[in-house]
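assembly run, all chains below
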Amino acid sequence: MTPTLTQYLVISLLQIVVVMGFVMTLVPLLTFAERKVIGYVQVRLGATRVAGGLWGAQRGRTHQSRTFTGGLNGFMWWLGRWPVISIFRGLPMFIADALKLLTKEDIVPIEADKAVFVLSPALAMVAAFTVFAAIGFAPGALFYFPAKFPYLGGLPFYGFLTDLNVGLLFILGVASVGVYGIVLGAWASNSKYPLLGGLRSAAQIVSYEVPLTLSLLVPVVLTGSLNFNEMSTRMATDIPVNGLVGIGRTLLMFVGFFVYTTCGFAETNRTPFDLAEAENELVAGFHTEYSGMKFSFFFLSEYASMITVSALASAFFLGGHYLLPFGLQPTWNHFFQNSPSAFLAWTCTPSILWFLLKIFFLLFVFLWVRATVPRYRYDQLMDVGWKFLIPYTLVMFVIAALLRYAA
Amino acid sequence: MEQLLIKLGQYMFVIFGLLAVGGAGVLIFSKSAVHSVIGFLFSMICVAGCFLSLQAEFLGVAQLLVYAGGIVVLFLFVVMLVELTKYQEKGIFQTQTKFAIPLVGLGLLAFAGVFRTALFGASTNEALTLQPGLVGATENLGNAQAVSRGLFANFILPFEILSVILLVALVGAIVLAKSERV
Amino acid sequence: MASPRYSLLRTLIPFDIYGGMKLTGKYFGKVLRQANRGLKRTHVVVEYPEVPTTLMPRFRGRLQMIKDEQGEVKCVCCMACEKICPTQVITIEKGKKEGRKTPFPIRYDFEMERCIFCEFCVESCGFDSIILNHQFELATYNREDFSHAMEGGFQNMFDPTPVSHYSVSSED
Ligand code: SF4
Ligand code: SF4
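ok done. output:
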């Protein structure tokens, strides 16, 4: 059943709303998770309250007695008694954060280049969010509308927005435009710290784009395709781990995963490569002069590109929509495909659940690394990029070509 | 629906083309060097859009990746680092005007000739399609495959020569930068 | 691992980053399991307004005068504290009181807004008649609330600061 044009448009719109809604809710949740994870790693508690006297002033204080700090916060104190819920105390923080960013005064420096100053956060945001057009969250249809569904009955709802033939290149190309947001914003601020941050960021991103692209060439060579869904499926299920080729492939994907994530950290300006916003040297780096919504655009785009990097890494190296990473799935399937246990048989089938779980895990790794690894110095950064990662990826590329030739 | 999409593609091509020309105008006429670079970037992105609307996805995305993502960043880098006002006083700009004007005129003439044949000539129907016989590709082969087959099978020698020329440029740049430091 | 023979291997495979990640991961897991109050706590912070903080014995809070067992003011107006105070926030007026041999301060004013809590006054006092108590929630909304006196000031020198609605924790 082929959809008519309007049906097609309606479904596309729905898909866009779902994907964008997913990303847009994940980003503020990530900021909350960041506080919590870093807090726990540093043996603190992270955010557990929202604000001082929200909903009721502090009341009922007597000598030597417990007091409450307002309704909501008292409730959150109470929630701390329950094992799992106590982790999620302070969750309304992300609403408070969003409200704060929305209502803050929007300051444009007098000496700034107004047009470019306004343009650059938008550029960063558009680049970071357009990428999701080519990311396949699930290959094929996610579900079919039930036949009774008004207007759209029986039509598929895809897990991806577009099935571009050159999806991977599209992602890389659009993401690479995101650097202009940083550099132009830094220049337009007409101030020294942002300019230094922007220059650092430009040099960093341009140099790390090389190993990033090279490390993504490994899956391209192994699968012989540039289509996101086809690549992720074939990387997960193509060659069983037997014989030299399969083992080599698994090892290659294992190493490639680490190399790609390292480059991804650098591309998204995250610690340990966040020289563009090194607080101790550059105040806040490229967004020193930004405030309010414009700042939050930069913020959103950084977190959105974190999601992109996690999605790419989990699709190409961690097995995508299948359970096992590094191309181990065919072996698993070989043993459990026809197993009597329904659960074990289910683990052999692709599911969007695995993909999302992998994305969440990688996002957690982003925060974990931020709490662990100190920032690189600038020359160390360049050393890591040019003397370590690029040779590494070139060797990997050659090995991948050899494996492809042998297979 | 197919018909509609093709029509849309044609309109998009015209729109992107005009926008690209607009970006090029900004590049030439704006006072600030960084604005010029922004115009250049805009024009590059619009050219990528043109390629996409002609269903040459690979070319379009490569344009985005290489020009918009890589080369213009380096331009921007240099423009931001170098204070151009310092050199403006020394009068090193616009010294080649008398050579440039005839050359541009020649180029315009050549372009006009190309446009005339493209719009009214015999090749109207095949000017923008990849010739299957040329690249040795079948109909259902994807865009990227067709380009790569063309590059690495049919035109391998020109491709390699080009890359050697680029290598020469790279080595030259390194030599220049080195000698300055010594 | 430290031997130079492995240095190339250490360059190629980031063991040290792995070690750091293991350590932080261990702490994350611990705190994640024990974040609720039911279990033994690993985290080093207290949830302050509800859980009273424990102060170190040498904590320097607000200046407070003390009385002896008979309810007499211990201060004998030797002016040592007024003299040594680097910010000159203590003002004492010497006077006499019926049935008391030593001089009696008829006025003892203390302007907390400029006090730097250096405890010089307490050290200089040979009669142990003043202390810096353990209060730290000293914020007020008005400047006048900072002026302390024996009587008549906004806050009494003998009592602990009345904990008003801007301070929440309890006083020991
Ligand atoms: S603590 Fe220091 S500043 Fe405060 S009253 Fe005593 S001597 Fe003066
Ligand atoms: S040093 Fe002690 S006894 Fe002397 S005036 Fe000050 S508080 Fe009174």
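Residues 147 and 153 of chain A are 4 Å apart (CA to CA).

Chain A has two domains: 5-47+105-406, 49-89.

not gonna interpret more than that til we talk
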